[in-house]
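User: Design a sequence. Structure:
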């Protein structure tokens, strides 16, 4: 397993404390996106299709520290956009470490080697380098040649300096299980500490709408990947029950509040993948979101989702409430043959709503209003 024991214990004891306090909903991982701007334009990405005025927005260090305090989750993931484009990212990482959080910076690694000297290795700090497969698979996924080689060089440089380095791999419908298994074997030889793997979410704004997986294909793909012998040596940075869910052996409902997301728009409703509205504060997000309207079976846009940002929290909470399930899995391994667990019926889900343009216009109006305020006029003179 790729999750360090200290982190697993810290998260497990946090979950237990929440249960003992009787909290019905609580966050596990804060997804902090301090900007949307990226230096790549990947085919399966639905995060960067904004006007320049929005891509130029940044969360300040103070905004990020406030979000970490408001949320209280033990783990903070800095994503984007490309977070290394944020000039103050190292300060944000340092501030989060000072608050005793476990920090991951998700990066496409194009700037990583150049910026490594701004960071120090720390047992609670991970790089998570985006790699969607071997050289051909990854460069196709990010729509640019040479990116795989630069990412591998950055991983090697970071490992040489003593950093913890994970990779995050998103799989689409054209993934070949044997090739994915061989790729995981390769990254193990690079010395990576963890592998996060997930099916791609069908972002409505992604340029390539042809290669997203549905649930049935996702489960079979993961069964086929896990049937390769190398799985025993892959340091998968996810809970065992989440991987078992990906292989079709658990019926889980989404826990969208498990990975709350703060962006330049505010606190995103309901989850990391869907921006259906924004709250000004974390409290407002937790208290005023109609959570029952989301998740597979409730909403059309959630029908095929099996992404860790929605289901990992469900698996972690299940592991803590029913530790015997985890023990059984550790002994028997992930089942890759035989009947799958029943899936959630979709016959009562509500139809998709398309609100992207409305939120973009609201944000543009907000930016224009802020720019027109007298202090900005004075500053511009
Ligand atoms: S199933 Fe959950 S995580 Fe997935 S898109 Fe819906 S609300 Fe978000």
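Assistant: Done.
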């Amino acid at each position: 397993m790729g999750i360090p024991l200290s982190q697993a214990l810290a998260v497990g004891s946090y979950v237990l404390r929440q249960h003992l306090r009787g909290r019905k909903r609580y966050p596990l991982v804060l997804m902090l996106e301090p900007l949307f701007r990226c230096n790549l334009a990947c085919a399966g990405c639905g995060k960067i299709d904004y006007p320049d005025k929005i891509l130029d927005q940044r969360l300040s260090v103070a905004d990020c520290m406030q979000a970490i305090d408001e949320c209280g989750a033990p783990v903070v993931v800095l994503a984007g956009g490309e977070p290394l484009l944020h000039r103050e990212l190292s300060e944000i990482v340092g501030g989060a470490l000072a608050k005793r959080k476990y920090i991951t910076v998700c990066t496409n690694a194009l700037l990583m080697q150049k910026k490594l000297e701004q960071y120090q290795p720390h047992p609670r700090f991970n790089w998570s380098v985006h790699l969607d497969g071997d050289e051909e698979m990854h460069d196709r996924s990010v729509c640019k040649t040479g990116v795989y080689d630069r990412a591998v060089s950055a991983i090697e440089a970071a490992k040489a300096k003593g950093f913890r380095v994970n990779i995050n791999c998103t799989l689409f419908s054209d993934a070949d299980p044997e090739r994915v298994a061989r790729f995981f074997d390769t990254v193990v030889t690079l010395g990576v500490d963890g592998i996060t793997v997930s099916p791609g979410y069908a972002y409505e704004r992604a340029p390539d709408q042809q290669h997203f997986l549905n649930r049935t294909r996702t489960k079979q793909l993961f069964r086929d990947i896990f049937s390769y012998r190398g799985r025993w040596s892959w340091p998968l940075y996810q809970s065992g029950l989440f991987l078992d869910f990906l292989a079709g052996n658990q019926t889980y409902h989404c826990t969208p509040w498990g990975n709350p997301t703060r962006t330049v728009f505010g606190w995103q409703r309901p989850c990391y993948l869907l921006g259906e509205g924004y709250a000004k504060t974390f409290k407002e997000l937790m208290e005023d979101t109609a959570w029952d309207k989301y998740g597979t079976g409730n909403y059309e846009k959630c029908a095929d989702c099996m992404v860790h940002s929605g289901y990992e929290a469900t698996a972690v909470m299940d592991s803590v409430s029913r530790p015997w399930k985890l023990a059984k899995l550790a002994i028997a391994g992930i089942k890759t043959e035989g009947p799958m667990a029943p899936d959630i019926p979709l016959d009562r889900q509500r139809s998709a709503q398309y609100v992207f343009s409305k939120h973009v216009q609201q944000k543009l109006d907000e930016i224009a209003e802020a720019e027109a305020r007298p202090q900005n006029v004075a500053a511009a003179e």
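The mean pLDDT is 93. The pocket of iron/sulfur cluster is lined by residues 254, 256, 270-271, 273-274, 294-296, 302, 305, 307, 309-310 (CB under 6 Å).
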